[in-house]
Amino acid sequence: MNEIARRRTFAIISHPDAGKTTLTEKLLLYGGAVHLAGTVTARKSQRATASDWMELEKKRGISISSTVLQFDYDGYRVNLLDTPGHRDFSEDTYRVLTAVDAVVMVIDAAKGIESQTRKLFEVCRQRRVPIFTFINKLDRPSKEPLELIDELEKVLNLRAFPMNWPLGTGFDFRGVYDRIRRHVHLFERVPGGAYRAPEAAHDPADPVIAQHLDPLSYSNFVEETAMLDHAGASSDRDAILRGETTPVFFGSASNNFGVQLLLDGFLAHSPGPVARVSSQGSISPDHPAFSGFIFKIQGNMDPRHRDRVAFLRVCSGQFVRDMAAFHSGSDKKIKLANSFKLFGRDREIVEEARAGDIVGLVGHSAFKIGDTLSETPGLIYDEIPRFPPESFSFIHNPNPANYKPFRKGLEQLLLEGIVQSFSVKDAPPLLAAVGPLQFEVVQFRLESEYGVSSRFEPAPWKLARWVDGTLPSNARIPFGSQLAADGAGGPAILFRDEWSLNYFTENHPSVSLRDQARPSPLLPQTN
Fold first, then answer.
1. The pLDDT of residue 160
2. How does pLDDT run across 485-510, given as a tens digit for each residue?
3. Cα–Cα distance between 250 and 169 in angstroms, integer?
C-alpha cells in the first residue's frame, strides 16, 4: 500500500453509556498503542483512559472533549478520533465528523438505537460518511440479534450486513461466528478487560461448538446463520463506501471480545482519505500540493504551559515540519512550526504527515476553527457548520479585580467553540450552547486553568435564529424575544419558544431566518 491508501481516519459515535470510550480503549489495546487497557471506572491505582485526559472528564467519568489517537497496525496508519458521548457536546462531535472518512457507531444491545445515535447518524448520512456498526454488551441481557438488525434497517433506512453472528446472548453468550472466514470464536471473559481476550478459531461443524451451547441456543445459531446465508446479501464494499450498507459486528468491548474482528474488518472495508470540496473544486488526497483545515482548537492541554493546539486534518499533499502555507483567515503565508503527533494529551514532534493524518499545531493564535492551510493561494475548504443552541445563560465576573484573566479565559474558550456568544443591549455577555453541561465546562475551566470564578444566570430563551439581510425597521419582535448580535456581529433574534418563532415568521414572511450563523469565509461573493 502507498502512504495515502494505508491511512484510515475515523470517529466513534454513540449514545451515552453504549460503551464508546471503552471500545476506543480496547481498539488501542489491540492496535498495540497501549499494553494495558484502562477504563473510565478504573480505581485510582489503575490507569486512566487514554482518550479522557481533561481533569473534568476524569472527575465526571464521561468524555466531554474529542481526542485524537494515532497508531500503526498491520500496515495501516490509524487516526482514531474519540468523540463526546453526551448530547450536550454534540457540536464538538459534529466538527470531528467533518474531519473523518468513516465512522464506527456503537449500539447497546439491550437498548438498540437511541436518540443521540439517530441524530449523529443523520449527520453522517448528510456528509455521506460510511458507517460501521458495533453492537456492544452481548454478554448482558439484550434484544435478539435479528431484532437489532431489523431495527437498524427500519429506523435508519440502511441495509445491514452482519459480518459476524453471536452464539447466544446475555448469560448464554458463548462467542461469535465470523461469516466471512467461516470460523467460530468462543467467548472467554477477561477479568477487568485489561488484556487481549484469548481466542481460538473453530470450524462451525466442530463438536466443541455444540458442547459450549445449550440445545436451544445451538439450534437458533444453526437456523439463523442458515437464514442469513440464504438471504444472499453480501459485504459489497462499494455499497459500504456509498453509505448504503453498514457492516455489523457483535461483541463485548468490556471483555475485549469481538474487538479484533471489528478492527480487522473495519480496516479491510473502510475507505482511505477521500476527496474534499473546496472553493477550487474537488481536491483529491493525491493532489501534490499540501492542504488541510482546522477542525478543532483546544487550549491548555498541557497544564504546565498555557499553550493552544489547533487540530489540522491534512487533505492533500505532504505536510512537512516548518513548511510555509497560506492561511485563509489572514490571507498570509505562515510558517507551520511546532507540529506534533497527538495521542490524547501526549504529543511528539511530527516531521511529516500525509492526507488523512491529524497534526497538532501549537502556538498559532491566529488560527480559528474552519480555517484552511494550503500551499495553493485562495484555496478554502467548505465551512464547518454549527448546531443551533438550545440553552442560554448570562455569565458574570463576580470579582472585578480579575477582569483581565476572566476576559482572556473567556475569549480563549470561545475560540475553541465550546459555546457560542451573543451580545444583548445593556446586558452581560450571553453564552449559548447545545446543552447546559457546556456551561459547567466553561465554569470549571475558567477556574482550573485561569484561576477565576464565574457565575451563570439562566436566560429565558430557547431558540436562536439568524437574520439574512437587514431586519425591517417596522419588524415586531414577539414579547419575551430579543434582538441580539452573535460573536461575529451578525444579527440574530432569540426566541422563548417555538410559538414565538412561528408567530414572528407568520407575521414577517419577507424576513429570512437561518438556524445557523451566516457563512463568513473568505470565499468571493457572487451576485
1. 95
2. 999 898 999 999 999 999 999 999 99
3. 10
Starting at the edge strand found earlier in the chain, the sheet holding 201-202 runs 164-167, 175-178, 183-186, 201-202
Bridge-based pairing of strands 358-362 and 391-396 is unpaired
CATH class of the domain at 276-374:
alpha beta
Instruction: Outline which parts of the chain fall under CATH 3.40.50.300.
Output: 7-269, 276-374
Instruction: List the helix and strand counts (H, then E) for the chain.
Output: 12, 31
Domain covering 7-269 assigned CATH 3.40.50.300 in the classification = yes
pTM comes to 0.85
391-514 CATH, one of 1.10.3720.10, 3.30.160.20, 1.10.357.10, 3.30.70.3280: 3.30.70.3280
Which three cell numbers, joined as nine digits, stand for 162?
Answer: 452482519
Maximum Cα–Cα distance across the chain: 82
**Residue 183 near residue 164, CB atoms below 8 Å:** no
Round to whole Å and give the CA distance between 189 and 202: 18
For residue 193 the three cell numbers come to 478487560
State how far the Cα of 459 lies from the Cα of 253, in Å rounded to an integer: 41
State how far the Cα of 89 lies from the Cα of 112, in Å rounded to an integer.
21
pLDDT tens digits, 265-312? 999 999 999 999 999 999 999 999 999 999 999 887 766 666 789 999
Residue 252 neighbours by CB distance under 10 Å: 27
